[in-house]
Design goal:
The chain is an alpha+beta fold and 92 residues long. It has a single domain, classed as 2-Layer Sandwich (Ribosomal Protein S5, domain 2). 37% of the residues lie in helices and 25% in strands. The protein has 2 helices and 4 strands; from the N terminus they run βββαβα. The chain has a 4-stranded mixed beta sheet, with helices on one face. Helix 1 crosses helix 2. It is globular.
């Protein structure tokens, strides 16, 4: 799947900034920065991975800066960044 650099989200409290970039490496490389990574890092990575794989993206560099986002917000930001990165409209 053709991909370009894209992002979605903010650094406001309760949100998450997601940046997606193409890569030659296999798999999803997730770089997570979060003050709650010790408690929720595994879940945040799981939501990011499941959302991207559900959209057919299995190879990308992902940078996530979490500010206490809920799972639904993480899914929304990852989806928006993926749509911007691929041009694939998942809302039709």
């Amino acid at each position: 799947m053709e991909m370009k650099n894209a992002s979605a989200g903010t650094l406001e409290s309760g949100d998450i900034m997601i940046q997606i970039a193409p890569t030659d490496k296999e798999g999803l490389q997730i770089d997570l920065t979060s003050s709650v990574a010790d408690q929720f890092g595994k879940q945040i990575r799981k939501v990011i991975t499941e959302t991207l794989e559900g959209l057919g993206i299995d190879k990308a560099d992902v940078k996530a800066v979490d500010k206490g986002a809920l799972d639904c917000t993480i899914r929304a930001r990852v989806t928006a960044a993926a749509v911007r990165a691929t041009g694939k409209d998942v809302w039709k």
